[in-house]
# Entry
Amino acid sequence: MADSRIRKTVWFAAALWLAASWVGATPVAAEESGGIRGVVVDPTGAPVQGAKVRASGPSGELEAVTGFRGEFSFGVEAGEYRLVIQAAGFREESVTARAPQDGQEALKIVLHLAGRYEMVTVVEKAGYRVPQVESGLKTPALLLDVPQSVTVISRDLIQDQMVASIADAVRYIPGVTAQQGENNRDQLTIRGNTTTADFFLNGVRDDVQYFRDVYNLERIEALKGPNAMIFGRGGGGGVINRVTKSPELSPLGEITLLGGSFNNKRTTLDLNRPLTDRAAFRLNGMFEDSGSFRDYVTLRRYGINPALALKPFGGARLTLSYERLRDDRVADRGVPSYQGRPAEVPISTFYGNPADSHAGARVHLGTALLEWQLGGLLVRNRTLAGDYDRGYQNFVPGAVTADRSFVSISAYNSSTHRRNVFNQTDLVASVQTGGVRHSLLAGFEAGRQRTFNLRNTGYFNGASATVLVPYSQPLVTDPLGFRQSPTDANNRVTNWALSGYLQDQMELTRRLRAVLGLRLESFDLRHHNHRNGEVLSRRDRLVSPRAGLVWKPWMPVSVYTSLSVSYLPSSGDQFAALTSVTQQMKPEKFTNYEAGLKWDLARGLTLTTALYRLDRTNTRAVDPNDPGRILQTGSQRSNGFELGWNGVIGRGWSIAGGYGWQDVYIRTDTAAARAGLKAAQAPRHTFSLWNHYQLHPRLGLAMGVVSRSAMFAAVDNAVTLPGYATADAAAFYSLSEALRLQVNVDNVTGRTYYVNAHNNTNISPGRPRSARVGLTVRF
# Structure
């Protein structure tokens, strides 16, 4: 009780500090003395937010990102500096400035729109590094200044690796592994914690279980460790944030045609056109019709995403977007296990009846973003409305008999229809209190979600929920009907979330920064069971703090430490776990302690390290003295180290990837596992390295290696998925400024391996040696 009072006192004091920063601060003057300062604007005079500014001179190589008013500043030694300014859709500009600027006006740098020729000219690859993000602090910031481990998969890396899914993308992110997800959804393990819901679209929750595509993405951001202050409830191990392509005031057009092994066929379109000097339109599209190395498995999907950007008046910018995605595929649960290992069957072997196995998703996403600069205040309002209709029917391999003669098969179908509406409003201001500069954020988020769930069990020959089929010929031909079992779901869930949050980024000295934030969240859920009429409800009040400190011993180097907290309500990440028992349970708590170092080398290479301890507490456990009673004494601990590399290490040589070490174990008994067991699908070691070398302005070669150590398929540690290492290769040739030919070969050595699982008897083999050829046409 005393500890609880102390914690409450600490966070109350933190809230008072944040409030005092807002009330007692004064706006930062544009004529602040010392160093180099300036603003970056477009030809209309509107500020350019998020532009990268590089300074080189007596203080070495420095970088900054323009704020919402287009402002930037460097605290540097006296002398002459060359500034290079870059922003998407604009020509690169360079100017010379002298420090200090005492008594002089801030520099005003005008960026000019890039012409069509500049958008298609073939140039040497600049590397895969993305130096700044907005999602880490809800304001544009260098990754060096974010006290958290963040890995960014850029659009160039997505293109070079022919990435088409989230699972493909995270292979090169240390600390993140993809699970099978019953082969009907994205499912990840982040720092030892599994999730199907911690996915965001431009910072807004996109938590339904389905397979997301990457055709309309600018980049994919993995923010590791809980960060409910920014993203709200959940995200115990971290989150994946997709950043979509935005309309720009410069023309571009690109079509990619792709074909390859196993009847792989895919087409993507990216078309951007300025309508006026204050309006632009962008259209992204995708169509795929592919087979698989797995017998009978096919995929057919398409997506279309038009977007419109306007500058209706003054300092306002409005962006409207709509995405329609349809995905249909054969549901495939992989192969079973035998004696603690994946079954030794051909990796193409299908279990069940492919004619009755299907998974589909129909997704409609509409978004609106309004950014309005009112003097020294930025007002940002973002709305997302989503309608998701997804379902699947599958056959599930089970246990293999002791003599390997037969394997058990079961079946079921499940459907989910969810409608999401979220609205976020942020207020951002730069102010000064004494000698401390503050970037202040205040925000409010409201969301409503309504979900309908229905599940039916398959009965073979009208009676049995399982059937035995020959181990070597596991196709099912028995008549099958579906109806509800006593435990199958038929429910409606409605939940409301209201949040308020404050954050203060403090520049205490030239080399020392601090981040302090707090989110207060109300989460209300109502669960209606259509089978028995039972109505359950629960309300949680969540307090999620964040604190971080960043020290720059040299300007390209930052050393940080951070503390963050998040909560997962007892209904689970898909709201399906609320029962009369869990209704009484407190949310699970995730507490992350982290320290790390980030280093931007002069050539454009970023090295990052993170050392962390992540504790998951309030997990359900069975009372040893009363098996019918549930306690919240269970816990899990993740200890880990991450090393990442991204950027250019020599002329024409770009790399991306990282190494991760983690030890994730059950610390005290839970309802699912006893203390000492290892978490499911959390390998001790992971390693990835992608190399792209530009031999000639028109010719490039690439080689990638992905490796992981052995891991357990489930938390009971009964089945082990062996470790593996695979190699991929690629070649790129620019036939002209408008034509680019690309060949990718996956698993060059043809190694047999097992990439992930859903449980002990649903294991997914990895892709065998295969090739894909792509032709990109720019216009």
